Amino acid sequence: MPRSRLHRAPAISGERFAVLDPATGEPFDEAPDQRPDELDATVEGAREAWISWRADSRARSVALLEAAEAVEAAGGDLAPLLTREQGKPLAESYAEVARTAARLRYFAALKPGREPIEDGRPVRSEVRWRPLGPVAAIVPWNFPLQLASAKFAPALAAGNTMVLKPSPFTPLATRLLGSVLAAALPENVLTIVTGREPLGARLTSHPAIRHVTFTGSIPTGRAVAGGAADSLARVTLELGGNDAAILLDDVDVERIAERLFWAAFRNCGQVCMAVKRVYAPARLYSRVVEALADQARNVVVGAGLDAGSQLGPVSNAPQLACVERRTAQALADGARAAAGGHRLDRPGYFFAPTILADVPSHSPVVTEEQFGPVLPVLPYEDLDQAVALANDTGFGLGGSVWGTDLDRAEAVADRLECGTAWINHHAELSLAQPFAGIKESGVGVAGGPWGLYGNLRPFVVHRPLEAP
Ligand code: NAD
Q1: Pairing state of beta strands 26-32 and 16-21?
Q2: What's CA 358's distance to the chain center, in Å?
Q3: Which residue of 119, 214, 275, 420 could cross-link 263, Cys pair, CB 3.0 to 4.6 Å?
Q4: 59 and 199 share a domain?
């Protein structure tokens, strides 16, 4: 792991708000509470910086590669700060830093081509790709660095500039990342702003912004889309999920239990593409419940900075309240906690890893995104019923099918209504693949070349073959 070189975010004067450590529930630092009226100058700076940033793709690649090195070198400062404000185990914070650097390298190497239009006409007609202008990015608190890089790496590689706002729950590592990147990027190419609402609402509805890229919940996504309607900026939304995992009757329960468990509980279940519902064949139901409960009972829960912690606290108090509410409702609806089911009796936002059995399918822990360390397991009688239940939701982010006969599993996966379906895995993502939710889980495509093109517009040059 890289050693600390004591990188610091720049000081900004004015109002500040407290940042809490979810492992204690206590404030440990603060961040600037920037006023919405400061955004005019910030966005104007991004617009001016765009003029030279858009002009030289080779210089952009060099800068993004330098930025990747700077991020790696700062890992020893970024990762512990991320764990402190977000709660995740330190190794996962280092993984976020590594992913951020990898994404910068991936997009530094990606260039849009020129595409001739060959349709038989005696003309030379060609599609070229142009950046959009200043981009506004808003990210949530579950993967602050990784999701910020999913915004700025493709946008900057495409020749746009960006103003990015992290969640007020996790502003610090992103601010530090901004100052680390400032060593490699020209001024105002990427500006991090922090503050409480209505800062995000004002940023995403700013008239000079040409692309709004948002990751967060569905209700906020709707508000963001509405706010961008006046300027008619392009809108990309990566929203919530309620991914189902369907276990087939030939699944090797004990063999997949650990992988399935972590597909649901990584980052304390606070993953848009976590497994959030498990459908198990009735004849295997009790074995599946018991195998997952066994995993849950044996997880080491602790502060992310403590060596050996596998699962940290829930990231903030409102999210903990949501997890408690949904679990209590499920238990009141007749569910049984095969493991956990309650908050842990210690300071901070710790919740016992929870496996819920016998949950009615209408309970909110099944129908809504629980976004915490809680997993409902539901039985099914026949496969058509399982597929129908998996698809019976407004969410459409991911899904998975688990079994031994891979062809059969793939045929079932093909019937899932979502953006990505895995077999015997869940949420394994490559930088090179498209990432897009369907239904209410998203608008637009991120990831891979699709993510680059999401930050570009086509520009057609059409000329005759000969002068008149
Ligand atoms: P959230 O919607 O509450 O907040 C997301 C961001 O929006 C924060 O930075 C917040 O400050 C900002 N915000 C709040 N109100 C705003 C407004 N009116 N205008 C503009 N910005 C505003 O979400 P959250 O609780 O921070 O994150 C959890 C959600 O994010 C879950 O639903 C999860 O599934 C989703 N998520 C989706 C993906 C994906 O790629 N599809 C990835 C990670 C998280």
Answers
A1: antiparallel
A2: 30
A3: 275
A4: yes
| 254 and 219 part of one domain | no
Beta-strand pair 123-131/115-116: antiparallel
Residue 166 backbone phi and psi in degrees, to 5: -80, 175
**Domain that residue 181 falls in:** 16-239+432-461
For the chain, what's the residue count? 468
Name the residue of 85, 86, 103, 142 whose CB sits within 8 Å of the most ligand 1 atoms, as the mutation to test its pocket: 142
Map residue 100 onto helix, strand or coil. helix
Extract the tokens encoding 300.
């080491």
In a domain, 393, yes or no: yes
Q: Are residues 59 and 200 in the same domain?
A: yes
Same domain, 306 and 381: yes
Q: Quick one: pLDDT at residue 127?
A: 97
pLDDT digits (tens, 9 = 90+) for 408-430: 999 999 999 999 999 999 999 99
For ligand 1, the distance from its centroid to the CA atom of residue 336, given in whole angstroms, is: 31
- The answer to whether residue 39 sits within a structural domain is yes
Q: Residues lining ligand 1, judged by CB closer than 6 Å?
A: 138-142, 147, 165, 167-168, 197, 200-201, 204, 215-217, 220, 223-224, 238-241, 272, 369, 371, 397, 437, 442
Under a CB-based contact definition with an 8 Å cutoff, are residues 431 and 102 in contact? Answer: yes
Element (H, E) at 26: strand 26-32
Residue nearest to atom 10 of ligand 1 (CA): 167
Active site residue 268: no
8 located within any domain: no
Distances (CA, A) of 141 to 117, 166, 242, 301, 319: 44, 7, 18, 20, 11
**Token pair 């060099």 in the structure block, residue:** 62
CATH code assigned at 60: 3.40.605.10
Six-digit token string for 9: 């975010």
Phi, psi of 248, deg, nearest 5: -85, 170
Mean per-residue pLDDT of the chain: 97
Q: Do residues 86 and 213 share a domain?
A: yes
- Chain mean position to CA 238: 8
pTM over 0.85: yes
Q: CA-CA distance, 57 to 38, in Å (whole number)? A: 30
Number of domains in the chain: 2
Does one domain contain both 155 and 280?
no
Which stretches of the chain drop beneath a pLDDT of 50? Answer: 1, 3
Closest alpha carbon to 254 in 217, 221, 295, 225:
295
Sign of CA dihedral 139, 143, 144, 145: negative
